[in-house]
Write a structure and sequence with these properties.
The complex is a heterodimer of chains A (251) and B (537).
Chain A lengths: L7 H4 L4 H30 L12 E5 L18 E5 L6 E6 L14 E4 L4 E4 L10 E5 L12 E4 L19 E4 L5 E3 L5 E4 L8 E7 L4 E8 L21 E7 L2
Parallel strand pairs in A: 1-13
Antiparallel strand pairs in A: 1-12, 2-3, 2-13, 3-6, 4-5, 7-8, 8-9, 9-10, 11-12
Chain B lengths: L2 H12 L22 H20 L7 H10 L4 H28 L8 H23 L4 H15 L5 H9 L4 H33 L25 H29 L30 H6 L3 H29 L11 H23 L7 H27 L8 H28 L2 H29 L13 H22 L7 H30 L2
Classes of the chains: A alpha+beta (251), B mainly alpha (537).
């Protein structure tokens, strides 16, 4: 064992209180520098937010052909994920034409959706189109942000993997996320069916023009899109200011 | 900070020890490998830095997936570099766990090595962090989801969540995300490097912990150099070269074999999966070393307390326990029988970690009701605790005599884990007959059987305390000369075989990688033979 080193403090206590005072001053000086540097470093590292200032109104078009989406272009209970980004590039949304188990359109009425996380509610917009069967919601899972194809619609009667109780004949048409098993009901305003999510999918407000049979996307309602401080920030704006491109991811 | 700590710092600052130190001969002899687990982690880290710097020349954050695929498929030797970079990280993490557990069971966290223990835990944390960012950088479908989950958990941090998310994952655009992930991947490696220097300096300063019999199993245990110690150069340096060659050999050869195998499960695939946002039907696994956190998200309780708090409970609590060990286990005994609770908790911890990981691999995204979660933790915890306590009791009171109890515990723990894994894999294997389950089930069953044999062997030798006979079974020097000549001949043949392989075709590259791994292995063995014949080590 080596003895404790002789510290000057111990062999030369000329004025102990003066020495302590100067030590504290030295520490405060270094502390001030640290705060100044840390503040600058942290503020520098926090990225500038990007986004748009308001919800744009866009016509839904086929991403490949550029032609507007019309009702016959959409398959009832399509098991493939039909998605479009809105209002920002990294905010995908489902476009669903819902039907019953035999494939007939089902009219979707507005629904008072519960938000279990906050205890609040909001009114979902309900279906649009000739049969009031076309609905849309954010395709970013509200649990931990998984996106299609990990999260997608399972048409009525089909198997949802690892989800006994909501699979097969008990599946009345759910959206399920295979990351951690959250389930939503698109027929009831994308409300929560099973956890772990505690928040329904935000609804997208669509409008249908009966004369031209085209659809526009207007805004969103419900909880904030997962991973964003608000729907309009945290991603690049869409490239077009008049149309939203609809793509299909087959599963 | 206590006065003792302060004195230690003053001592270190004013009286740094010469690097590197001499070590006693037994650390380089048979079984000495356990003193060098840290060196193995270091060489894996070195391998990662070198290959990582090469990949840095090609990786483009703005085209993460495309540039990764391009490096993999079109750049000469890209496949070897990328797959070994991945498996090198796996090796580093696995070796890190080995290093940590070994030091936990021998009580290396005790005086005077407390600070080494703390820096080691920090290194575990930063290494897993680097692993997470590295895994996410390929931009494939699994990485995209893992990133999303990591981002979601960071964003849920109380008060500073939004800032953490911004600082680590950027402003939400893909360009900013991958730029940040590349940045943090490298910055955290630099942090590892700096902490490692401290860790290494402390190891040299406090000396490598010698065998515990030197101090009759009492802390503080430091190595007291005698004039009999051989100098560092060349004896230890050449030994380090041997360890480096063997570590590199394992890192290069394993992924090259995996590349050549058909039907490797997603979890151990050396390649990225399909690009994010394209069709993918398999389970959305995180990297295997985070499977336990992934499974914890499926617990019913986790959906009530939110993912952030679930992570804090299931990943943070073990970490805090590790940091507290030096304070919980305060007596000065290094003997396992004097530390029954710490040893039992260590073994239970391994079982939880491995159990949750296998559970996550077998039932991805299947909600586990709370009673089952409770059953898992309570049954494994209580059963192992009782078993370990009984074993320690019977050894302490000489009901069973073990020559090397530490070895027996490690073997028993490994047997338990391997047995649990075999059972878990046997079920889907028998139900589905898929090679994905069959092959690992068979391999694990073989490992389990072998471990059971070893268990019996280690306990039997323990009962009859044998005289250690002088090493008579050694081969004659001329045999070694012949063997080394043969090895070099084999190396030349291997070099001759792999040279014409096309380095831009993944399947041929796998052959090149296997050949390269064999060359590294042969070189390591040549060094070993040299040490054996010339130094008698």
């Amino acid at each position: 064992m080596v003895e404790a080193r002789k510290e000057p403090e111990k062999d030369n206590p000329a004025d102990a209180s003066r020495r302590s005072f100067l030590k504290v001053m030295m520490a405060l000086g270094v502390g001030a520098v640290t705060i100044g540097v840390a503040r600058g470093a942290i503020q520098n590292l926090i990225p500038q937010s990007v986004g748009v200032s308001s919800f744009p109104t866009l016509t839904l078009v086929n991403a490949t052909t550029g032609a507007p989406i019309k009702t016959p272009d959409m398959t009832v209970n399509n098991p493939a994920a039909v998605i479009f980004d809105y209002p920002l590039q990294n905010e995908p949304n489902f476009l669903l034409r819902l039907g019953d188990s035999s494939g007939n359109d089902v009219a979707i009425s507005p629904y008072n959706v519960q938000i279990p996380a906050t205890g609040g509610t909001f009114k979902s917009p309900g279906g649009v189109g000739p049969y009031k069967s076309v609905v849309s919601s954010s395709a970013v899972c509200q649990h931990l942000g998984c996106t299609p194809p990990s999260i997608h619609f399972y048409k009525p009667g089909t198997t949802i993997p690892n989800h006994p109780g909501h699979s097969g004949s008990s599946n009345t048409g759910f959206i399920n996320c295979s990351c951690h098993g959250s389930t939503y009901d698109p027929y009831k305003g994308f409300s929560v069916v099973t956890g772990p999510t505690k928040s329904p999918l935000p609804s997208v407000i669509l409008a249908w023009d009966s004369s031209s049979d085209t659809y526009t996307v207007n805004s969103m309602v419900g909880p904030t899109i997962f991973g964003h401080s608000d729907d309009l920030s945290g991603g690049n704006p869409l490239s077009s200011s008049s149309q939203a491109d609809v793509t299909t991811i087959s599963d | 900070m206590t006065e003792k700590d302060q004195n230690e710092i003053i001592k270190i600052m004013n009286d740094p020890q010469p690097l590197p130190r001499k070590v006693p001969d037994y650390m380089r002899r048979k079984g000495g490998m356990w003193y060098w687990t840290g060196a193995m982690v270091m060489f894996a880290f070195l391998y990662e830095v070198i290959t990582g710097l090469v990949i840095l020349f090609y990786y483009q954050p703005t085209a993460a997936y495309a540039s990764t695929e391009n490096f993999l498929n079109s750049t000469p030797f890209g496949s070897i570099i990328l797959t070994t970079h991945l498996y090198g990280a796996y090796a580093m993490i696995a070796l890190l766990y080995l290093h940590l557990l070994r030091n936990m069971f021998v009580g290396a966290y005790k005086k005077p090595r407390k600070n080494q223990w703390f820096t080691g835990i920090l290194l575990l944390l930063t290494t897993l962090g680097v692993g997470f960012f590295g895994y996410s950088m390929s931009g494939d479908v699994l990485a995209a989801n893992a990133t999303g989950v990591g981002k979601g958990i960071a964003a849920e941090t109380p008060v500073i969540g939004a800032y953490l998310e911004g600082i680590f994952f950027g402003n939400g655009t893909n360009a900013s995300l991958f730029q940040r992930m590349l940045g943090w991947h490298i910055v955290l490696v630099a942090v590892i490097g700096i902490i490692f220097l401290g860790h290494f300096f402390l190891a040299e300063y406090n000396t490598i912990m010698p065998r515990r019999s030197e101090s009759n199993y009492r802390a503080p245990l430091v190595d007291r150099e005698t004039s009999a110690y051989r100098p560092w150069y060349p004896y230890n340096m050449i030994y380090m070269v041997q360890i480096a060659l063997y570590t590199f050999a394992a890192i290069v050869i394993i992924p090259s074999i995996v590349v050549a195998l058909p039907g490797v499960p997603t979890l151990f695939s050396p390649f990225p999966q399909v690009a994010a946002g394209t069709s993918f039907t398999g389970p959305l696994y995180p990297p295997w070393f985070l499977l336990f956190v992934y499974k914890a998200m499926d617990f019913q309780v986790s959906s009530i307390i939110d993912p952030f708090w679930a992570t804090v409970v299931f990943a943070g609590a073990p970490l805090i326990y590790l940091l507290l060990i030096p304070y919980l286990d305060r007596n000065n005994s290094l003997s396992i029988t004097d530390r029954p609770v710490i040893v039992a908790l260590g073994i239970i911890g391994i079982a939880y970690l491995v159990g949750m990981s296998i559970w996550g691999a077998l039932t991805p995204a299947l909600l586990i009701p709370d009673p089952e979660v409770l059953l898992f933790f309570v049954v494994i915890g209580v059963a192992l605790f009782v078993l370990v306590e009984l074993a320690i009791w019977s050894i302490k009171y000489r009901k069973t005599r073990l020559r090397d109890p530490a070895k027996v515990y490690v073997l028993l723990a490994m047997t338990a884990i391997s047995g649990f894994g075999t059972g878990s894999l046997a079920i889907p294997s028998l139900l589905t007959f898929k090679p994905v389950y069959d092959i690992p089930a068979i391999i694990l069953a073989m490992i389990t059987a072998y471990l059971i044999l070893l268990d019996f062997a280690s306990m039997r030798t323990a009962e009859t305390v044998r005289q250690i006979e002088p090493v008579a079974a050694d081969m004659k020097p001329v045999t070694y000369v012949l063997i080394s000549a043969f090895l070099v001949f084999a190396a030349i043949v291997i070099l001759f075989i792999i040279t014409p392989l096309n380095p831009s075709v993944v399947s041929q590259e796998a052959g090149y990688g296997i050949g390269l791994g064999l060359l590294l292995f042969i070189s390591g063995t040549l060094v070993k033979i040299y040490r054996k014949t010339e130094y008698g080590e």
